[in-house]
Amino acid sequence: MERGERYRNPTEVQMSQMVLPCHTNHRGELSIGQLLKWIDTTACLSAERHAGCPCVTASVDDIYFEHTIRQIQIMPPWQQQHGKNNVCVGQVVNIKAKVNRAFNSSMEVGIQVSYEDLCSGKQWNVCKAYATFVAQGKATGKMKLKPLAPQTEEEKMEHSIAAERRRMRLAHTDTLKDLLTNSTLQTERENGDCNTVVPAEKTRVESVELVLPPHANHQGNTFGGQIMAWMENVATIAASRLCHAHPTLKTIEMFHFRGPSQVGDRLLLKAIVNNAFKNSMEVGVCVEAYRQEMEVSRRHINSAFMTFVVLDQEGQPSTIPMVKPEAGDGERRYREASARKKIRLDRKYIISCEQTKVPLSVPWDQSNKVYLSYNNVSALKTLVAKTNWVLATEIDKVRMYTLEEDKYLSFRIEMSLCIDATQAFFLLSDLRQRHEWDRHYASAELVQQVDEDDMIYHVLSQTVSQENKPQDFVILASRRRPCDEGDPYVVAFRSVTLPTRPPNPEYTRGETMCSGFCIWQETAELTKVSYYNQAAPGYLAYVTTNIAGLSSDFYVTFKACERFLQKNKDEITVGLQNL
């Protein structure tokens, strides 16, 4: 790139579409089905730009529609004067897609959709999504992709967090099963003020589509965006049969493409309302493919779950009639819909807490454990990806950097030492040993072993609060091994709340926002250990008022950490060999 030239991601693809009457629904809004076609096309072109070969859609992550196009439309003066209300037509949808990370044969593509009012010049976000594409070789099927080299701070952050999103996708089915097995779900009707009960069977929709050449992509397979559009269509019909109104689509839970279909295939689309809550309903959709009309066997090629609401004249959600599920599979779908709703609400709560930073501690339970772990690691990776760190001091090869953003002050302390990265990873992830090198820790008790990589500790601190009482913490420790060569080992910490560990009047309950270690294997003998801590003003009681005193404190602690690692590395090596 020449000097002065603006950097642009080589995989970035932009699409701008003028909304025409053929793109809108009966309300004058841009059809979600049409939007899904544009999204899939843009994302596919981005994936193929990186892969250099044809790519197919494997999945599209949950899509939350922040606005419908018409809801955020400002009617131009000339339309107001003439009383026209088809305000979508003539406006522009902008879609931007770029590859965030390439794995072996799959890659994650990030998609951002915005809406532009040409008369006012204003723009609004419509939705953000992540799609997974698989590269298709000429003869051998899947092919190995070249790694991506992120350049900007945003690209580095998305590249790092993409590994966490992939982990969460793979764990989603197990999370749902675990919630259904081990948790008590509230499946009773929330809106007791509605007496209307509709049998779920009355909302069932079945529709057959014949795949014709215009429905195929440039590889001869059925275009993924077309399948998603057909699925949205039958889901809307099913939702309408429950509420006898025109519903608005708010959320699409992951599209999962299980297999391809080709021109000449018949696609049987099935939709039914799985559950209705007070102001929303979930519709399940599946797609089966078959070749001939007399064929008995059918291939399940796609599925998704869509959440609809019905808006009144003021744009507020209306009460939805109750659903009576069918016995057997209907009752199973009914309970699973309740579980998915709980997972969605828990995730939204975690995100809102992360955006406002209040409260710092988020309740932990079975339904949100995967997403809370993802959020814990992602917050640390986001901090690591920041580029505006400032070197504050260096003492005996221990370097301390600071980062000031808004009202938060972050610290990064790093050093290189002779130890294997794996050894340092296991030693630093066990908080029960931290008191041996960190004088601010009195003790740490392992309260719950969530899984192999996530643990919850109750920590007693040596630090005395302003109330003249020692502090205690309930901390979720999440650790990750490298996903690819060059990735660090990660150990992330954040505060959570547990019913089994309520605040004790003898202690002041402290909270940690975001902290942890990143560990890089630099050479065969040398490992770089970096510690990060993001704190609000006044959070760390032991932080002195001057940077020299602060760096001295961290230096003493980090040197103690180095001695601890050197002392215990042989012991951890024996343990690793016995695994």
Number of E-state strands: 24
How much β-strand is present in the residues? 25-35%
Largest sheet: 11 strands, antiparallel
Structural class: alpha+beta
Number of helices: 8
Protein name: Acyl-CoA thioesterase 11
GO biological process, one term: acyl-CoA metabolic process
Main location: cytoplasm
Pathway: Lipid metabolism; fatty acid metabolism
Helices and strands in order, then pairings?
Blueprint: E1 13-18, H1 32-51, E2 55-60, E3 63-64, H2 77-82, E4 92-102, E5 106-116, E6 123-135, H3 153-182, E7 197-199, E8 205-210, H4 224-243, E9 248-257, E10 266-276, E11 281-290, E12 299-309, E13 322-324, H5 329-356, E14 362-363, H6 369-384, E15 390-395, E16 398-405, E17 408-418, H7 421-429, E18 441-449, E19 454-464, E20 470-480, E21 489-497, E22 508-509, E23 514-521, E24 526-535, H8 547-577
Parallel strand pairs: 7-13, 14-21, 20-22
Antiparallel strand pairs: 1-4, 2-6, 2-9, 3-9, 4-5, 5-6, 8-10, 9-12, 10-11, 11-12, 15-16, 16-17, 17-24, 18-19, 19-20, 20-21, 21-23, 23-24
Helix pairs in contact: 1-4, 3-6, 7-8
Describe this structure in words.
This protein is an alpha+beta fold and 579 residues long. The chain is built from eight helices and 24 strands. The chain has helices at residues 32-51, 77-82, 153-182, 224-243, 329-356, 369-384, 421-429, 547-577, and strands spanning 13-18, 55-60, 63-64, 92-102, 106-116, 123-135, 197-199, 205-210, 248-257, 266-276, 281-290, 299-309, 322-324, 362-363, 390-395, 398-405, 408-418, 441-449, 454-464, 470-480, 489-497, 508-509, 514-521, 526-535. Strands 1, 2, 3, 4, 5, 6, 8, 9, 10, 11 and 12 form an eleven-stranded antiparallel sheet that branches. Strands 14, 15, 16, 17, 18, 19, 20, 21, 22, 23 and 24 form an eleven-stranded mixed sheet that branches. A two-stranded parallel ribbon has the order 7-13. α1 (32-51) packs antiparallel against α4, α3 packs antiparallel against α6 and α7 packs across α8 (547-577). It starts with 12 loop residues before the first strand and ends with a helix. Mean pLDDT is 84; it is low at 71-87, 187-192, 539-547 and 574-579. Pfam families: 4HBT, START. This is Acyl-CoA thioesterase 11.
